[in-house]
Design a protein that fits this description.
The protein has helices spanning 25-31, 42-57, 81-92, 107-110, 116-126, 146-149, 155-173, 204-217, 274-280, 284-289, and strands spanning 13-18, 65-68, 101-104, 131-135, 138-142, 179-183, 221-224, 231-235, 238-242, 256-262, 267-273. The chain has 293 residues and is α/β, with parallel strands linked by helices.
């Protein structure tokens, strides 16, 4: 994924966020063996194909499509990993070549406790695990949130990302971008900065440190997945957006995607079921925001 260095604000645009296609989880979850199950993923293939087809039909085209982690279900070293990867790569090649694809690493992609080897495997398969890009005057930061969950086996990699992030945030702090947006897999929090620690969020001490760093620099929003349900909240001026999955649902939401409109002053987003987006496209009020100067 390569953008020209688009550092100038040129007016409103939109992008699509998805999360957790997680090929294999639906079968694993249904059989109660979510660790080593997942020997079928036909449902996830069909859902991800539906997502891609819905995105390809949108007019005007989104500026990019970001997938916020847990691309597949099989953890590093587990059965079916190679096959799930090959099938997802095949589906993602169908994304319109004019719509850049941005891939974020999740815990199933690099392991709950990542190692230099699992991170290197992700990089070879999918690309960098953290990086930045500019689009229309907006600085986008893709992060490897697993380093904040458990970096006990790769402390040097976590330190390198932390130092890099500080450098990127200094650009934001100097007001050199219209907005700054973060993409990561694990949410900082699901609803409130003070909520209890949970499998689906980062621990309180870690989340507060990162949230203060991001909000203090002027980051507008963090987009994540991992929860397989829609959630989110705000902290200071930071919007923490948690999107449900393309794949397996663990709550009452539908398989879906989030449409995110970026205007000069704000970022407006709405979750659509795959059926809604396929059949009706984006609603007029969101499209109207893109006409603002």
């Amino acid at each position: 994924m390569r953008f020209p260095q688009e550092r100038e604000w040129k007016g409103p645009f939109y992008f699509i966020q998805g999360a957790d296609p997680q090929f294999g989880l639906m079968k694993a979850w249904s059989t109660g063996d979510s660790d080593s199950g997942g020997d079928e993923w036909g449902q996830e293939i069909r859902l991800t194909e539906q997502a891609v087809q819905a995105i390809n039909k949108l007019k005007p085209k989104p500026r990019f499509f970001v997938l916020c982690g847990d691309l597949i279900h099989a953890m590093p070293g587990m059965p079916w990993r190679k096959e799930q990867t090959a099938d997802l790569q095949r589906v993602l090649t169908q994304v319109d070549s004019d719509i850049p694809l941005v891939l974020v690493s999740g815990n199933h992609d690099v392991g709950n406790t990542p190692t230099p080897e699992t991170v290197a495997e992700f990089q070879q398969t999918w690309g960098d695990d953290y990086f930045s890009f500019w689009v229309g005057g907006v600085l986008c930061l893709v992060l490897n949130s697993q380093f904040w969950y458990d970096a006990s086996r790769c402390p040097a990699l976590k330190q390198a990302q932390d130092q890099w992030l500080d450098q990127q945030l200094s650009i934001v702090g100097q007001h050199k971008c219209q907005h700054a947006i973060v993409f990561q897999h694990i949410p900082l929090f699901l609803r409130s900065i003070d909520e209890d620690d949970d499998y689906f969020n980062l621990t309180k001490s870690v989340r507060k440190e990162i949230a203060n760093k991001l909000a203090g620099a002027g980051v507008t929003a963090v987009f994540s997945g991992h929860y397989h349900r829609n959630a989110g909240g705000t902290y200071q001026n930071l919007d923490m957006v948690v999107s449900s999955a393309i794949g397996c649902q663990l709550g009452q939401d539908t398989h879906g995607l989030r449409v995110v409109v970026v205007t000069a002053k704000k970022i407006v987003h709405r979750y659509y079921s795959l059926d809604e987006l396929s059949e009706k496209g984006i609603e007029d009020d969101l499209m109207g925001l893109m006409k603002e100067k």
